[in-house]
Structures are given as structure tokens and as C-alpha cells.
Amino acid sequence: MDEVARALDAVNVFRDTPVGTLRLNVPRAATLALASLIGPFAQANPKVRIEIVTNDGLVDVVREGFDAGIRFGESLAQDMIAIPIGSRQRFAVVAAPDYFARKGLPKTPQDLAKHDCIQRRFPSGATFAWEFAKRGRFLRVAVDGPMTLDDSTLILAAARAGLGLAYLFEQQATADIASGHLVRVLEDWCPHFPGFFLYYPSRRQMPGPLRAFVEFLSQAR
User: Fold this and answer.
1) Who has greater pLDDT, 24 or 13?
2) What residues make up the domain containing 146?
3) Which one of 9, 11, 50, 81 has the largest count of C-beta atoms within 10 Å of its C-beta?
4) What is the pTM of this model?
């Protein structure tokens, strides 16, 4: 079957339009970067079937049969080819106005010890430490609170309900901040950082649909 797949990929090189399936494994947060790309790519490549599986755990894309994955740069293996996808990212610390009316505003990351923080748990079982940086100073804060969730939508809803502080990607909270449903704090402690990367193995022939997606990303940057 591998030989057949390689033969089909070789034929794809000579096609005007690539044919086949593009299988991607991405964390749920990466849908922020993919949302504006998938539609135009599908329109430009009508014979490519697109299959996207969301998974917040670290996945061996080769063993699981994916063409590529999307992750942050620091979590990539060294034998992978990585291409930036989407814009830079930034975190935001937010809570509902009535929560701050009860608890007050944190001025520094250390003040979070006095607050109810909505924790996030990874599929591995580890909880997510909130990271901050300012003027060359880096802090990783292990927050605490009465609620632990594994989904950004639920975390956002809990923050809106006044149940505590949430630590989310800036894009996930932008609309609620603009509408006044959420208030942002510690913004000066939340710098931008490189966003997501598309990654794929360096030691295998690139399938036609993946090659088309890589070329599409290079033109979109």
C-alpha cells in the first residue's frame, strides 16, 4: 500500500490540480489559525478532500496516518519540517465585571494567588501553568481555583458567568472584551509570541495534497 501511495503521489506531480486527501491533526486552539485558510484552499483545490482531526494531546502524526499536524514550535520534534501558519499569538487574562467587583483587580501575576482561576487540564492529565513576561522577566504561575475544564468554550462561558479568571488566546476573548462581557487584566504581562506551525516528516515523499497546502501557505504569508 505504501508503494501504491508513493506511485499516486508521483503522478500528482504532473497534475494541474492535486487529487487525494489531506489529513491534518491539530489542537482545538489551532482552529483560530485555520479558520480563514481552509475555505480558500478548498476552493483553489476542488479535488482535494480535507480531513481535520482536533486533538489537544501530542500525536505521532506518522504513526497515526496523518499527512501533517499543527502545533506550537516548542513542541515539535527536530526531524520535522515546520512552516509558520497564521499570525502571532497572545494570551489574555479575563473575567466578568461582577467578578472583579467582588474580588478586585490583580495588578501583577503574583496577585493571582488571591483569585479564583479557571484551570485547564490537558489530555495527559497535567494542568496548564499561566505564563507571563515583561521587560525580560519571565513568570510561570501555577494558579488555583474551584473549577478545572478541558475546553476553551467552557472556560469562556465560565468566565462570562463570573466564576473566575480565565487565561485564553486573545482572539477567543476579543468579542467579549469589546462588548463589555469580559474585562481584561495584566495585558502588559502578556506579550506576543510565535504562533502555530504546520509540521510534517522530513524523510518521506510529500503527498500531492500536502504539497499544495504548503505552497498555499507560502503564498498566504
Assistant:
1) 24
2) 91-189
3) 9
4) 0.79
